[in-house]
Design a protein that fits this description.
Number of helices of chain A: 14
Largest interface: A-B, 57 and 57 residues
CATH topology of the largest domain in chain A: BirA Bifunctional Protein, domain 2
Low-confidence stretches of chain A: none
Structural class of chain A: alpha+beta
Mean pLDDT of chain A: 97
Shape of chain A: globular
CATH architecture of the largest domain in chain A: 2-Layer Sandwich
Strand order of the largest sheet of chain A: 3-7-8-14-11-10-9-22-25-21-20
Number of strands of chain A: 25
CATH class of the largest domain in chain A: Alpha Beta
Radius of gyration of chain A: 25 Å
Oligomer: homodimer
Helix content of chain A: 25-40%
CATH superfamily of the largest domain in chain A: Bira Bifunctional Protein, Domain 2
Largest sheet of chain A: 11 strands, mixed
């Protein structure tokens, strides 16, 4: 960590983010334009995200598998909207083993096509359905404007791909996974998200309908944080995924796909981070509590380190780090772990030894207000409670921030103003014309029609036509 | 599962293997030549392997990270032996985002080069050392002759990359990881391996020295099952990984790399499999025990299923599957789970209900001999004990098989004969000429100079010169 201060979020949010990712050791730029190296601290965070999601996938009957990285170019062309959506973003392998390939291979940007091809081989009868497979892996999309975690040429994600006998089951699955994403975001990441449906213009290339969880970042911009797509029979028809039903008749299957990526690390940083650095939610933090010993003399050191050992021994069920560095001061350590977003700091000094206490310092409430002194006994329960408190408080703060910055503009002029620094939650007639007008004139896009709607109807914020659904307009990452 | 029988291993070992991989649902062929799809059952096995290794890596201070898939072509060229070794096997991206790239990008065949580049940025001082990073991921090598799991264009693996201040530390790390691989293979996979050093001809392209664990497959061929390389200062010099030592002098670091891949699944299949199918070691098996209910009448079904529920409830600490399929017979189920290698079958029939027992059938001992009847109480302890017994017995059987088929040929003529169906453990002078002669005349290669040596010296099995080390000659996958 360098001693220099981060820019504040107010000064320059983009620069605050970029420097923070680098200085907190989450990621680094790779030598290939637009690619990133996820450093051990960032990857440990991703591993915790993976576990939290994987556990939920398995509990709902999904299994993991691995499909190839390289996809024949012709596969991409089988679904019309899909190829249109992805062809500008492809990385193409044209040489293999020193020879020019007869058919170029695409480095997967997503795997609907190759998985569709395999499903057409595996699925024969209604007895083979549903197929509920997820894959953890990397994909490549040739993005022009990149930003660490948010948009990189290569990124890491999971992509679920399921096949069902009926349209109803596919729709149920699509919403089940959307809800799993929302549950994870809210409960494990303390990121309050709005779950909703994408407009036609914003949906996945090849989907019948797309759903999303949208989160508000610290600069009030929206971040699409996970998506779940009902693919209808589009890919089943393109890849001939057919099964014999109970009446021995051949039917096309109904498929879904859903994904969440390392982009979500960006959501965590920009939802909770403050001017001192990262603030990580306790359930996902690679280090949940850091123990910092404080002493001046050798005699103090001996008694402090003895207490530190006793403290540590009580906390084996948490992800704990003892910062034993000798070459830096406790003050430096405080700043360092604040920058890295460790939720709880436990200080042990000579006075604590004397009194049989330790000092807790909450990352989410800097300064005196976040400090408390607790007895060295029953630390396990106290740390557990404090981490839960921090987890809940982060969610509440972010939720309040979103509510304060979500507006209900009275007319189109007001909408144009509020989306410059917030979200607008407004009636919309559903027409692409109104959507495009807003985008062109304000740079705000429709983020989603939230599943939770007020009901009734109102006039479209753009054209005034009666509308039955409200939409979120916002500038987005 | 089709009803057709597998070829026996004696009839056609290669065909037995290929059909078994497909029919046990471990993997399938992908539409791109030489690539595979790892199906859910195969991936669940890989996940268990990953966990067993990852746990060991973290316990020895390693952390995970992720480096890019795409490597600038020029990077490969910086280490002379490395580029010579890998250039025939490369997949090359020449087009990105619709444009021809100025510099083609290699899909990583291994990551020494790009990681070396990043380490040169990160490592400045002796305080930054050692760096102990591992990566789980996929790599691509354009192999001409492929075989599911054993040799595929894309495969999955972990690659550890470490940097150290001294040659001694790098060598210690190289052997530490070799021992971790051996410990995993023996204790978790019941695959008895021989740990040793590779000859110059067989070492990794760019390494100072390479170490390997070698296993004997059911046809007596050797399989290289994991490797650990001491890279000396080769990559540090190629990528300028330098640090200031305690005297403020600039030094090159010493690096290592080590990897184990989905190839190891092939090792498990070919070490333990029999003519009925897979035999999976209990510690890694995705399903450790399958419960098969047996009944004819509805009344029997009710009481049997009730007992099955009680049995299952006792076994929550194991990976258990209850086979409730109605459309197939118990006999079909027995064959099916035997094919898939589930270590223990627990049968529950009307007689068991009456007597308060269940039947255990061991996968490693087919037929009556592997069957026993145990009371329905204290099943947890009994299953744990049985799985441990099977785990140990698989290792013992494979170890005996290797010992029976490892020979100590008296002269070169005898060596030529024994390596056609076994290993030869012989003195070797170390010269490439003798090594090449054996390879040309018998197709057997030097597998390794085992770390455990008899000591003393003897005449080279090829040229008769006095030699101080014994080597394993064997035909290999």
């Amino acid at each position: 960590m360098s001693e220099e201060k981060l820019p504040t979020r107010k000064e320059n949010f983009a620069e605050w983010y970029n420097q923070l990712v680098l200085r907190a050791d989450l990621a680094d730029y790779a030598p290939v334009r637009g690619c990133m190296v996820v450093k051990p601290y960032g990857w440990a965070l991703w591993e915790n995200i993976q576990q939290a999601l994987d556990h939920r996938f398995k509990a709902t009957g999904h299994v993991n598998a691995a499909f190839p990285l390289l996809i024949p170019q012709s596969f991409l062309e089988k679904e019309k909207e899909h190829v249109e959506g992805f062809s500008p973003e492809l990385a193409v392998v044209t040489i293999g083993g020193g020879e020019v390939l007869e058919e170029p291979l695409i480095v997967r940007p997503t795997s609907e096509t190759i998985i569709g091809y395999m499903y057409s081989k595996w699925i024969k009868s209604y007895r083979d359905l549903p197929v509920l497979i997820n894959q953890w892996g990397n994909v490549v999309r040739w993005e022009m404007r990149t930003k660490l975690f948010l948009r990189t040429l290569e990124f890491y994600w999971q992509e679920g791909h399921t096949a069902h006998a009926t349209a109803e089951e596919a729709q149920e699955e699509t919403l089940r996974m959307l809800n799993i994403y929302a549950d994870f975001a809210i409960n494990d990441a303390s990121v309050p998200v709005v779950a909703g449906r994408k407009s036609s213009a914003e949906k996945f290339a090849g989907a019948a309908s797309s759903y999303t969880i949208e989160a508000m970042m610290g600069d009030t911009r929206a971040l699409q944080s996970g998506t779940s797509h009902n693919l209808g029979q589009n890919f089943a028809k393109a890849f001939n995924i057919q099964y014999l039903d109970q009446n021995n008749e051949l039917q096309y299957a109904w498929t879904t796909s859903w994904g969440m990526s390392t982009r979500f690390i960006g959501a965590i940083i920009m939802t909770h981070g403050d001017d001192q650095g990262l603030v990580l939610p306790p359930r996902l933090a690679p280090i949940q509590a850091v123990i910092v010993p404080i002493y001046k003399t050798e005699a103090e050191k001996a008694s402090v380190m003895e207490a530190v050992e006793r403290v540590k021994a009580q906390l084996i069920n948490f992800r704990i780090k003892v910062d034993e560095r000798e070459e830096v001061t406790p003050g430096f350590k405080f700043n360092d772990w604040e920058l890295r977003g460790v939720p709880l700091r436990i200080e042990v000094g000579p006075k604590d030894v004397e009194k049989g206490t330790v000092a807790f310092a909450r990352r989410d409430i800097p300064g005196r207000e976040g400090k408390s002194f607790v007895p060295q006994t029953q630390l396990e329960a106290q740390v557990a409670e404090m981490l839960q408190t921090i987890q809940a408080s982060l969610h509440e703060r972010a939720r309040n921030f979103r509510m304060e910055n979500t507006h209900n503009p009275a007319d189109y002029a007001a909408l144009q103003e509020v989306v410059q620094a917030g979200w607008a939650f407004s009636w919309w007639c559903g027409s692409p014309e109104c959507e495009t007008k807003v985008k062109d004139e304000t740079k705000a896009t429709t983020r989603c029609m939230p599943l939770e709607q007020p009901g009734g109807e109102g006039p479209c914020i753009v054209c005034g036509k009666p509308s039955t659904e409200k939409v979120i307009f916002a500038r987005a990452y």
